[in-house]
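Expect chain and fold; see below:
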Amino acid sequence: MLVPIFTLKLNHKINPRMVTIGKFDGVHPCLTAATQAGKVFIHNPHARGQRPAAHRLSHSTQDSDISLLNINQAVTCLTAGKLGPNTTGDTLLVGSQTNLLAYDVHDNADVFYREVSDGANTIVLGKLGDIRSPLAIIGGNCALQGFDYAGADHFWTVTGDNVRSLVLFDFTGDGKNELLVGSEDFDIRVFKEDELVSEMTENETVTSLCHMHGSRFGYALANGTVGVYDRNARYWRIKSKNHAMSIHAFDLNADGVVELITGWSNGKIDARSDRTGEVIFKDNLSSSVAGVVEGDYRLDGQTQLICTSIEGEVRGYLPAGKDLKGNLMDSSAEQDLIRELSHRRQNLLLELRNYEENAKVHLLIGVGVIPANTQLQTALSVRPATEAQKAHVEERVNTNNTFNLPLTVPCTETIIRAVLIFAEGIFEGESHVVHPSVQNLSGCARVPIVPPKDIPVDLHIKAFVGGKTSTQFHVFEITRQLPRFSMYDVNFDSSADPPTGSVTFSISERPQRVVMWLNQNFLLPEGVESPDVTFNSLRGGGLLSVSMASNGQITLRTDDIDLAGDLVQSLASFLALEDLSAEADFPVYFEELRTTLTEVDEFHSVHQKLTAAMADHSNYIRNMLVQAEDARLMCDMTTTKKRYRELYDLNRDLVNEYKIRSNNHNALLACLKSVNLAIQRAGRLRVGKPKNQVISACRDAIKSNNVNSLFRIMRAGTASS
């Protein structure tokens, strides 16, 4: 059994997912974590007795090994590592909702302090693509931003939603790091600098990412799911009722391959094989895990796995020695495994007994037998909304011999007793069961499906099939893919007003290729052989029309700019287009964006006025306090009371102004998110280099406050009129 080689109890609470280790003097590893009241603590048991200078850093009164860094803001993320080219030790990076601090702990000095309008939800440090210097990359309000050692902005791009996790590693195998981004829109995106090269869709917010080895990486979701991908292919995943607070890659069983270490909200720590997800080790802390890191904390030349809890408990584990022979679990865990195998054996024996009894019944009375050629058939169709049921996609499941059996065969018409469908992101709990009553049994079952997003989904279907008098059933399994744009029904009414929004681009492909794409991604009726099709959106209403001219020009008409972007990306992927420029116009959306930009200017103006007013009030309070204390020392109680009453009123005004400033800041963040999303949407209407050029040009236009140029870029892909 693997046991901790050291245990610490720090007298500071630790914020979840805000733990790192840094060698700030270049030699001694220090456990560093965000704690309460806008502070970061640095635990350094290797340099006892050294007193810090008096800048930001101070010693904890509770523990001589701990120094406290006062940030004076709520910390949202932190990390440590080599940022400067000529620095001896690691740089500590601390993010908040408004600022990013790079701090030299050894010299007790700021390296840089930058305002970040999009906030900093998560941070990663390292090299990206061809950018020569290491970058501190922060993920915030739909935006990614990278700073070098001098605080210069070398990288910026937008992504689909608020960023929750980042990791840098060589995803494509070209020897250069790509940036993997997990966000609240359930997507994992891969950026080669500012170019989006790959995208994986999950079914919840991606809260953690970590590199395993090669092109393999681990991930964790907000619903308790953890798993491993190898590039775009998912190897395995498991789901827990608890939340994964931290994941880390570490070779705990010393077999030369790292395991996925997960720290859970109930205090459990487990290590899983990167190949199968099998648990090879587990332990429990007394409270929720805050973070999992690694480092040579004992300075003995061996790297330890270090696990921390939110209550300040720290445990260190060494990789297994040869004496354990890979057996990291305690005896109780082995007993749990034996019980699980015994339970599985009982289930298999019960299943075998059922088969034997079923065979006896068939021999004795000849009922319940289904024909040997019975097959399960499925069909997908679009169903518009009715008074009784909202719009949906219908999955029809039936057997091939339900109604065509000869009358001479007694009781052999097959019926479907139940249907189970497993699908990610569609059903609550990822599964759905249809179980008709005995009176309504037939050989056909219809299952309504309402996909919440336009993504392709694999439907894993299991059906219980038997005869009308069967008490035991055969299980048929089949997998069917739900097309990406399945919630769009063909519209044959040509009198409807066309959408005002459109995107137009040209391709060098035959119309038949576009028709193939339509058939693969939509549920089309038979006989559609033209690329000119109009659809009704069953999810949000409105029309979508696709048309292709003889010169290869394609026009997509819709008022939903997100849908237009999805269509462009899907078609470009199907046709393997590396670069695609387009012209777009979405009058309604662009007018809303113009209003948002006006609101951003107004919020910035209010923010500056409130900041100035609070500074004036602070100076006034300082002077008033001096006057009040002077009067008290002179025993002038009348003046003292008067000054303190005025101080009370000023303090109340300050609190009210802070509330106004806070509301103004939240409204400003919402507007900035809308602007970043607009840039991302404009980029998704193009592919490859034109996409990157649009995003870069849009940012330059916003920096220079050139609104007219911004809209020209979004429409034409270039700032030229």
